[in-house]
Amino acid sequence: MDWVEELGKICEVFPPSDAYRVDETPPLIAPEPAENFVVVKPENSVDVSEILKFANERGIPVFTRGGGTGLSGGAVPTANGILLSTEKMVEIEVDTENRVAVCGAGVTLKQLDRAAFKNGLSFPPHPGAETATVGGMIATNAGGVRALKYGTMRNYVLGLEFVLASGKILRVGGRTVKNSSGYSLLHLLIGSEGTLGVVTQATLRLFPAMKDITVLAAPFQRMEDAMSCVVEISSKMLPMALEFMERRAVEIGERVSGRRWVSREGEAHLLMIFERFDEAEEAAEIAENKGAIDVFVATGKREQDDLMAVRGLIYEGLRNEIIEILDACVPPAKIADYWRKSNELAEKYGIELVTYGHAGDGNVHQHPLIYDGWENTYFEFRKKLLELAVSYGGVISGEHGIGTVKIQELAEICPDQYRIMKEIKSLFDPRGILNPGKVVLPNHG
Ligand SMILES: Cc1cc2nc3c(=O)[nH]c(=O)nc-3n(C[C@H](O)[C@H](O)[C@H](O)COP(=O)(O)OP(=O)(O)OC[C@H]3O[C@@H](n4cnc5c(N)ncnc54)[C@H](O)[C@@H]3O)c2cc1C
């Protein structure tokens, strides 16, 4: 760290405070933060370029951090070096005529939502943490409950400004929805988790303002019936969200939120959100035909908030009891089967899973509860679980990314992809200074 004084000549350097040592990754699997690192807070791409040039010439690791809400250890500085925080890159310009927002990387989801709303528009994706930043959401290709109808971050990024490890500033894409101009560097950066470049600014697509919503809650005796309902509804309409919870998850959501869910009966519960009332009515009929124990239609804001709070606060209630939150995806029609087989597998290992997720897009959040001696058997179980998801035509991470926590699984379950990812990484970042130890490892796999 004999370079710190020299770095101080090109930008202000801050000591590492504890808040920068962690992200939201559950502690048992979170990576160990480095002892020594310094924090820099660039204001624009030129500042970032100078910092990266400095770091690249000396081979100093650079860890880019947005809101620190990530769940895969991506923003944790795991080696002595520089933590680059985007917290000062917060300008937003809303271009209402072309329905885009041009945002600094550090703009939070909440700030973006507000800016869009003030201009009579909306930004539909809504990953759960509102302090997540534009840069972080792009770097993880964040999703959330509305992905079924509105897609993930990838569907919203029209243009990007980013800085390569060498300090070169690149601008790709623009303010247009269409772009068939050769290989998409834009889409390579999306989901790259700070390992290929530092995103400094993004042009994001906005949509017309959201309409009033109708919320349905429907408990089912069996997961298979609930999922058969999901499949039929999805073939007839596109709800804004189609969420599922197993009974235990509902109980936790009720306890933490202090609100009542419609029923505790039944193994599987659906929460559905619609922008059109006629669709909600049709969906209620489908749910009844599929054997729902009850179908509750909420049109008033208060009752809608009650239902959504139960679903929205499950993670809060679980976070101190779990090893981690998994986010595999399977095709939606396979969820019930995957859920049953996962539980059978978990039982063999003596592991308890609490499960809920985004039924409409197949993103299943499974939470293994902490047990004695978990370090000895958990990772073997997890690999089998993720292999099971892939065997259904799924993927190992639907929205949280690889970070430090799933590198081994990526390398072992998807070895060909992993090899190409490593080659791409070395092309973008030959000295390996950008977020080292995340997504791919140079001498591994
Ligand atoms: C309560 C809760 C609910 C959540 N719900 C959801 C959900 O519904 N859907 C979902 O997808 N995720 C969800 N998440 C996870 C998290 O919010 C997302 O992964 C989010 O996209 C991370 O954004 P961030 O700004 O906090 O990034 P950070 O945690 O700071 O960083 C995440 C990764 O992005 C990289 N990065 C950050 N900024 C940049 C940049 N400017 N350029 C290049 N790389 C960068 C980092 O290096 C790191 O690898 C949730 C998290 C919590 C705590």
Task: Give short descriptive properties of this protein.
445 residues; Uridine Diphospho-n-acetylenolpyruvylglucosamine Reductase, domain 3; Alpha-Beta Plaits; 4 domains; six-stranded antiparallel β-sheet; five-stranded antiparallel β-sheet; globular; binds flavin-adenine dinucleotide
Could you characterize what this model shows?
By secondary structure, the chain is an alpha+beta fold. The chain folds into 4 domains: 4-87, 2-Layer Sandwich (Uridine Diphospho-n-acetylenolpyruvylglucosamine Reductase, domain 2), CATH 3.30.43; 92-208, 2-Layer Sandwich (Uridine Diphospho-n-acetylenolpyruvylglucosamine Reductase, domain 3), CATH 3.30.465; 214-317, 2-Layer Sandwich (Alpha-Beta Plaits), CATH 3.30.70; 321-406, Alpha-Beta Plaits, CATH 3.30.70.2740. It is 34% helix and 19% strand. The chain is built from 15 helices and 17 strands. It has a 6-stranded antiparallel beta sheet with strand order 15-12-14-13-16-17, with helices on both faces. The radius of gyration is 22 Å and the shape is globular. The mean pLDDT is 97. It binds flavin-adenine dinucleotide (FAD). Flavin-adenine dinucleotide is lined by residues 23-24, 64-71, 74-75, 86, 105, 127-129, 132-133, 135-137, 139-140, 142-144, 193-194, 198-199, 315, 399-400, 435, 438.
